[in-house]
Structures are given as C-alpha cells and as structure tokens.
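Board notes (copied after class):
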Amino acid sequence: MIIFGTKGYLYQLAILTLVCGQCGNPAAHTLRKRVTKFTLFFVPLFPVSTKYATQCTFCGAEQRVTAEQATQLQAQAAAGGQGHGQPHQQQPYQS
C-alpha cells in the first residue's frame, strides 16, 4: 500500500502599505507565498506549485501577483520603500 497526496504551506513574506484596488483605501497588505508539495507516506518531497498573492487587511480582498512582482514587493519592503513594510521570516502555516 502506497500513501501519497499533497500538503499546502503558507508563508508570509512581507507587510506593505499599498492602496487597495478593491476598496481604494491605503492599508497594510500581506505578501504571501503558497507552496503545495507532493507527499509520500506523509513526508513532503518536492513542490508541485508555488503561488504569490497580496491580501488587504482592511477589506480582505486578495490579488494574485507573479513571482517577479512578489520579488519586487519583497525588495521594496526590505528597503523601506513605499510604506514601512517589514520582511518576515517565520514558520509556514500548514493547510
């Protein structure tokens, strides 16, 4: 018997102050990375997909971004550019 499947991990990369495209308010947005990994016998082996998104903390709207845009936003947060974002290194949320 072989047991296999997938498991999702959610990483918070940075917090930025941006103008929300949904509600139009300047609010904090979290930059998140979701990685889905293939598991064999409940052991995560390799990533199957990686997706990036920002989420408005005011209205909760989520907007997908490309890997290049996520890299730029993360660099902007580290440099203290538009807003006062703080890069975060923490354990992933598991789903």
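Comment from the instructor: The CA atoms of residues 10 and 34 lie 5 Å apart. Residues 82-95 have pLDDT under 50 and may be disordered.
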